[in-house]
Automatic annotation (TrEMBL):
Residues 263-303 are annotated as: Disordered. CDD domains: fungal_TF_MHR (cd12148). This is Transcription factor domain-containing protein. It comes from the Eukaryota.
Length: 359
């Protein structure tokens, strides 16, 4: 587990599996107080399958997500063209993990507010990471060239999954930032949480540039602007946010420009030009039609706080001019998909320097 954690932080989640194979079992999902020297394996198993979250729940579920991340790296990101069957399989694995959290974290507590603060923080960190994995898995379809996106059913399915995941990441980022009980966990937003949020904004803007989800602009725009405001406010505490905030401002300007083009009847750039190194290839012709319930839309109906739309609308959109527009196609063309796995391997410094040169 130590090797897995270290290598995942370095952006290489599969190394522990390849070089340090082990057949030992994972720790039991129980509290320390329930551990006794004479406790049988059957008793441990029974304790692990009953009740709510324990002191070990977050760690065990996070490592299951690490395993899924390893599979995504090996079977999708490292292939010249990720097979649709693998993408479906891994998407299902992510959703099963998400359902397992609801089963355990809310076995006793009926609402998130009834959870202890550390469990509230943990379940939201798990959510953000799972949604980040969803973006890693599906953005390879969304950002492909035209030859790889011929199947409109698959494109529609992946675009909905990316929309839900990206908006949910921004919601978690805002939630952790704004809830008073979670202030001790701001270290997460100062680091990995903001990297996930930055990834989400890039995917949202690129989808809108391609003309996808134009009917969701009323929610996407405020969420992007509010995310930029949070990054700007955390710059003195977070080196990542300090460098990413100017890039986010340009991304929001790009989003506003794409929206203005569509509002005035212009055709947006639906296909990113150049070689994106994002698994170009032919689409799968026998794909079945997918239907995906929108988690973001469901949450919006159930929770008026999702995306904090009323609060977000108070932010003025950035002024759109040529100085705020970067050639994101060129930047994306130089990045490998594996570099989105971790901030440790993401070329933020390169992007930051390019943005400074453009000013």
């Amino acid at each position: 587990m130590l090797y897995t954690h270290q290598n995942t932080a370095m952006g290489h989640p599969g190394i522990a599996h390849a070089y340090f194979p082990s057949n030992c079992r994972a720790p039991a999902d129980i509290d320390d107080d329930n551990l006794h020297t004479d406790t049988s394996d059957d008793a441990l198993e029974s304790l692990s399958t009953t009740g709510g979250p324990t002191q070990m729940t977050y760690l065990l579920k996070k490592f299951r997500l690490y395993d899924i991340c390893t599979d995504i790296c090996e079977h999708v990101l490292c292939k010249s063209c990720g097979h649709l069957a693998q993408i479906r399989r891994l998407d299902g694995a992510i959703q099963r993990e998400q359902r397992s959290w609801d089963t355990q974290f809310f076995a006793i507590a009926r609402t998130e507010q009834q959870l202890a603060p550390h469990h509230r923080a943990h379940v939201n960190i798990l959510r953000s990471y799972a949604h980040h994995l969803t973006l890693l898995l599906h953005q390879q379809i969304i950002l492909r060239t035209s030859d790889a996106a011929n199947d409109e059913d698959v494109l529609r399915w992946s675009s909905v999954r990316c929309l839900d995941a990206a908006m949910s990441i921004l919601h978690v980022h805002a939630y952790v930032q704004n809830v008073p009980e979670l202030q001790p966990y701001q270290w997460y937003n100062h680091g990995l949480g903001s990297f996930h949020a930055f990834h989400a904004t890039v995917v949202l803007v690129m989808m809108c540039q391609k003309g996808l989800h134009q009917n969701r602009k009323y929610a996407i725009g405020p969420a992007l602007r509010d995310c930029h405001a949070r990054f700007a406010g955390m710059g003195h505490l977070s080196p990542f946010c300090a460098k990413a905030a100017p890039l986010l401002q340009m991304l929001v300007a790009q989003f506003e420009t794409a929206g203005q083009m569509i509002d005035h009847g212009s055709e947006p750039n639906r296909r990113l030009q150049g070689s994106l190194n994002l698994h170009q290839g032919s689409g799968t012709s026998d794909a079945q039609r997918h239907t995906a319930s929108s988690e973001f839309e469901n949450n919006a109906r159930e929770d008026s706080g999702v995306a904090e739309v009323q609060n977000l609308l108070n932010h003025d959109p950035p002024v759109v001019n040529d100085e705020n527009i970067l050639d994101w196609n060129e930047l994306l063309a130089e990045i490998q998909p594996q570099q989105w796995v971790s901030p440790a391997v993401f070329p933020l410094e390169q992007w930051f320097n390019v943005s400074n040169n453009e000013r």
